[in-house]
Amino acid sequence: MAKDGKITMSDVAQLAGVSTMTVSNVINERVRVSEDARERVLAAIRESGYQINPSARNLRAGRSGVIGLAVPQVGNTYFGMMAELVIEEARRRGYHVAIEQTGALAAGEAAAIAQSRRLQLDGLILSAVEVDSLVPPVPVQGYPIVLMGEQDPAGRFDHITVPNEAGTAAATEHLIDQGCQRIAVVTGGNLDRLTMFTRRYNGYRTALEDRGLATDPRLRFMVDALSREGARSTGRRIAEAGLGIDGVVVFNDTVAMGVMRGLRDRGVSVPGDMRVIGFDDVPESASFIPSLSTVHPDHRWKAAKAVDLIISRIADPSSPPRQYTVPFEIVRRESTA
Amino acid sequence: MAKDGKITMSDVAQLAGVSTMTVSNVINERVRVSEDARERVLAAIRESGYQINPSARNLRAGRSGVIGLAVPQVGNTYFGMMAELVIEEARRRGYHVAIEQTGALAAGEAAAIAQSRRLQLDGLILSAVEVDSLVPPVPVQGYPIVLMGEQDPAGRFDHITVPNEAGTAAATEHLIDQGCQRIAVVTGGNLDRLTMFTRRYNGYRTALEDRGLATDPRLRFMVDALSREGARSTGRRIAEAGLGIDGVVVFNDTVAMGVMRGLRDRGVSVPGDMRVIGFDDVPESASFIPSLSTVHPDHRWKAAKAVDLIISRIADPSSPPRQYTVPFEIVRRESTA
DNA sequence: TTGTAGGCGTTATCAG
DNA sequence: CTGATAACGCCTACAA
């Protein structure tokens, strides 16, 4: 540090026998530089171990070089993983990431936006759950925000979303392909609003209809609580329902694992008696016993796209909002074997 | 942003009718400023919504304002949680945090150090596992590094460590207090070197000796693998050992949960037949079934101390290394009821 | 106690 | 194609 930190562009310029502007131009590839000068500069950089000083560059550019990432909880493995990927992708593009937590609450999300502005972060990637409440006086105007996860029905924001319907439909079809006939679904939240829960539930219904299977309202289970224990007790209810259930589509992996534990409490074996499939492919899913089949969205693609979106939004705040859907695939594991 | 970002110190100065230096002095509380001037400045700051520009400040100060945090894996809940706390504590002190991953490998740790220097981060908080390999040519010289987690036997680095011996001893004593007489221990790694495994194992032995219980080498189980499945099979072995075991001390929570699953595979009930206690108090431990008693180090204290250490190390690179141990308490939950 | 001058390292601008 | 100059916003040093 002591040494590295002291080497400046003018040191390099001197070494190469050119002006600092030429060094800058070589580094940033802005204007054409003669082959001769370019090579001398590159050699000087290599020799000296020069590293650009981000503070100076950012000062000059009038930006902070930091983007915010607001998620419900970093402790949660799903968001931990996403944070890790976003950090990597951002670094690759010369940005740092500052992490905020929202607790999945509307107030937390509003606070994250305010905080992000206050800290003069260049923009914010927001894993918003309560999109509908992102209206004034929440300070969303004139600040680069990209939503990651939920969609904005009003189309006001850039967003990148997982394929809720298509993914759940594919999961359901996978169960059908494996021979399941009476497929239950575990959902949650309020199905009157168009939330992630509703979308995933719709995917399940669509698949059943497409494949000519009857939809039976008794096969729809609301998760008892968004916790391991809540999911476990839901699993027990499914085991005791006595409806000939042979497959279960669950709206996310964490809950799916809880459901499997509940099934096992009641002596139901997975996949022997019932097959189970989740959504997200969180890290634990592969090592759970039995390992969990699931909808695997391309997490890195998602992170990279979110970073690209926020950077281009920062560059051009007035362009129309864009929407993207993450590619996905079904991962087949023991739980649906 | 457009607006906030444009307000500079001289805008504030003009508004308050003073010079920029007075504004700077008010903000940084460096020298005494008259009550009158101070109030006008504060009012101007409030009115204008002024925010200091970190790039300019850092450029001037010759630092980056970013510290690195290298952990084995952010996806891991324990490190996710620690990362979250370190980020918060750092922000509180005006620093950003850049996260690196080491994969718990010596090479990864060396790479994190090199990368951290290369990026000109002001310092690095390193959750090192392979401390012994932190020797040249690993570039540790003249760069502020604080170790978090493992100790440096050579005493070359600042470090902050969890109370391996004392914590495990207290855990073991808790089992004894609950009436356990034949207490097994689950450990791992290589007990010939003084690693976290060895220290925790020693804590267990010390407690048994202090309380006058016999130590029986057959009660020492090496975890089959550092994974859920590995721990599970270790749990089965414990269940089948037939040594009258009525308590198990496990070196961390994740493995403890795997062990409990293995015990259950063999019909051993926790805490009915055996009591189990872990170490770390990761987020899942409270919601596991049964909830896991464990050694709870003060995670926030640890994060705050690590940040304080690195900041003071940055300020004074030549002061002698300092060592701290995190305070802890035993959390009693269902698994030892 | 307050203000002035100058420079931290980079890059936009414009002249050469 | 290259270089001199000025400026980004802040703070140390010194002067008033």
TrEMBL record, chains A, B:
Keywords (A to Z) from UniProt: DNA-binding, Transcription, Transcription regulation
A molecular function GO annotation: DNA-binding transcription factor activity
A Pfam match: LacI
SMART domains: HTH_LACI
InterPro entries per the UniProt record, alphabetical: HTH_LacI, LacI/GalR-like_sensor, Lambda_DNA-bd_dom_sf, Peripla_BP_I
CDD domains: HTH_LacI, PBP1_LacI_sugar_binding-like
PROSITE patterns on file: HTH_LACI_1 (PS00356), HTH_LACI_2 (PS50932)
Domain HTH lacI-type per the UniProt entry, residue ranges: 7-61
PANTHER family per UniProt: HTH-TYPE TRANSCRIPTIONAL REGULATOR GALS, LACI-RELATED TRANSCRIPTIONAL REPRESSOR
UniProt name for this protein: DNA-binding transcriptional regulator, LacI/PurR family
Source organism per UniProt: Glycomyces harbinensis
